[in-house]
Amino acid sequence: MNSYLPTLKQLQYLVALHDHGHFGRAADACFVTQSTLSAGLRELESLIGIILVERTRRVVRFTPLGNRIAEKARRVLREAEELSGLAKAAGKPLSGDLRMGVIPTIAPFLLPRILPKLRADWPDLKLYLREETSTAACDSLHRGHVDCVLLALPYQCGDIEAAELFTDRLFVAFPKGLMPDPPPAISAEDIDESHLLLLEDGHCLKDHVLAACNRPELRAEATMLGTSLHTLVQMVDNGLGMTMLPEMALNAGILDNTDVVARPLEAAHPSRRIALVWRAGSPREKEFRLLADALRESATA
User: Which residues constitute the signal peptide according to the record (predicted)?
Assistant: First the structure.
């Protein structure tokens, strides 16, 4: 065996510098001094005989090969973490640390329902939560920053596996009085595109709404400016337009103390699918499926 292989610590330094683009911030992320991190990277470069990073006083610039090696190092570190996680799962499933990403259109509405039971049923599980938009959460998953993501499907999240938990129906929300006698359900064809308020890009709910309505003109005409569902509700309550809300948000009381009315969306596919997703081929698949079962049971209880 080659005794001159890079160490995991050297690879951690390289990935941290690639992520932060600054020696000081990368050192802080690794909990070492800047000189320690710099020395470790120079040892790595000396070991493989290649300059990975061009250093100037103002700029840290990775060489093309340095970028490739940093991405490979990221995968090696992720596999090392999964190796450790696999060993823990084999000894006692759903115990120890687990990092889960959650998107903002799920986190505040579902987590309060599922976390108490999850803590009671799996007291040895240390669940670290990271709330991010769908785009950022999928990126964090493949970079190894999180182990799994609570996501709404369909969504292009790369090479993943998924365990679906339940279906979450979409509702049309509008100011009280906009429709004197609102029907039991609102057809997608009856939505005024000039008054439709949607979330900013990066939130999968925006894509789910547009796909459910199946009206190409909505993508061009709808106003996409909300940073959260709570923000959209406040704009609707102030008579600025209408929006779409998932059923879990309504069940959590997002319309309490407002004059906003909600009716189910009438469309071919008026819902999104809530799922737990993880990297395809992960050795912790059995543990993630066990977690999905626990989440499904808690969410539907």
Answer: none
Closest CA to 208 of 150, 242, 167: 167
Cα separation, 136 vs 265, whole angstroms: 28
The domain at 8-84 falls in which architecture?
A: Orthogonal Bundle (1.10)
Sequence-separated (6 or more) residues with CB below 8 Å from residue 215: 188, 189, 191, 193
d(CA 132, CA 213): 25
196/243 Cα distance (integer angstroms): 5
Mean pLDDT of 121-141: 92
pLDDT value, residue 289: 94
Whole-prediction pTM: 0.75
Q: What is the pLDDT of residue 170?
A: 94
Answer whether residue 91 shows pLDDT above 70.
Answer: no
Q: Spell out the alpha helix ranges (H) of 96-133.
A: 107-121
| Secondary structure of residue 256 in the 3-state scheme | coil
DSSP structural state of residue 132: -
Bridge partners for 169 per DSSP? 271
Could you write out the DSSP letters of every residue in 49-75?
Answer: T---EEE-SS-EEE-HHHHHHHHHHHH
Q: How many of the other CB atoms lie within 10 Å of CB of 34?
A: 15
- Which residue reads 């490979």 in tokens? 72
Decide: helix, strand or coil at residue 211.
Answer: helix
Instruction: Outline where the chain has alpha helix (H).
Output: 8-20, 23-30, 34-48, 64-91, 107-121, 134-143, 204-213, 216-221, 229-237, 247-251, 285-300
CATH for 93-301 (3.40.190.290, 3.30.930.10, 3.40.50.2300, 3.40.50.2000): 3.40.190.290
Residue 12: how many other CB atoms lie within 10 Å: 21
299 vs 126: CA distance, rounded Å? 19
